[in-house]
Specification:
- With 168 residues, the protein is mainly β.
- It has one helix at 142-152, and strands at 2-8, 13-16, 22-32, 38-41, 47-51, 54-57, 63-66, 72-77, 91-94, 100-106, 114-116, 126-132, 158-163.
- The protein has one domain (13-163).
- This is F-box/RNI/FBD-like domain protein.
Length: 168
C-alpha cells in the first residue's frame, strides 16, 4: 500500500490476515477513531516494513500487532512524514521470533512510541536504531521515546545505535 489515508471505523477494530507473510506500507496515515485502538492479527507474517507511515489515535489505546512468527521489523521515517502529531499512537508488537529490528528516522526523533509486549522474546534479535537530525529540528519527545525503545531491546545480543543528538 502506498500514499493514502485510512480511517479506521469507530467500532472495535480487529483485522485478521491469516495468510499474509510480508507487509510493506508506504506513506500512509492511519486515523484510528475509537477508544479500543486497532488490533492487527497476522499469524504468518515474517516481515513488517513501513516507510513514512503515521498512526494517529483520538484516544491513547494505540495499535497492537499480533505477529507470533515475525522475524524482521523495518521502520523508516523521513523529515516530510506527518510524525509530530500530538495524537500519535503507541505501536505494540506481540512477537516471539524477532531476529532483526531496524528503525531509521530523520528529523531528530522517533515518531511513534514502539513497544514489545514481551521484550525477552527479542533476546536473539539484533537492533539497529539510527536517528538523523534535519536542519536543526528537535522533538521534545525524542529522549523519552529513545529510552522506551532502548529498554525494549535491553536483552538483545547486538545493538547498534547512531544518533545525531538525543537529549535524555
Amino acid at each position: 500500500m502506498c500514499g493514502c489515508a485510512i480511517k479506521v471505523p469507530t467500532i472495535k477494530s480487529k483485522f485478521y490476515f491469516k495468510s499474509l507473510k510480508h507487509l510493506k506500507l508506504w506513506d500512509i496515515i492511519f486515523n484510528i477513531d475509537n477508544s479500543l485502538g486497532l488490533n492487527l492479527n497476522l499469524p504468518l507474517l515474517k516481515t513488517f516494513e513501513t516507510e513514512n507511515c503515521t498512526w494517529l489515535c483520538t484516544k491513547n489505546e494505540g495499535v497492537t500487532i499480533e505477529v507470533p512468527l515475525l522475524e524482521s521489523v523495518n521502520i523508516g521515517q523521513d523529515y516530510n512524514c506527518v510524525s509530530r502529531e500530538p495524537h500519535s499512537c503507541t505501536i505494540k508488537f506481540s512477537a516471539s521470533c524477532m531476529t532483526d529490528f531496524t528503525y531509521c528516522g530523520y528529523g531528530g526523533g522517533i515518531s511513534q512510541p514502539i513497544v514489545l509486549s514481551n521484550p525477552s522474546a527479542a533476546c536473539n534479535a539484533s537492533a539497529n536504531i539510527t536517528l538523523y537530525r534535519y536542519h536543526g529540528s528537535y522533538v521534545q519527545e525524542t529522549g523519552s521515546r529513545v529510552c522506551l525503545l532502548l529498554k525494549q531491546f535491553s536483552q538483545v545480543k547486538y545493538i547498534k545505535f547512531h544518533g545525531a543528538e538525543v537529549i535524555i
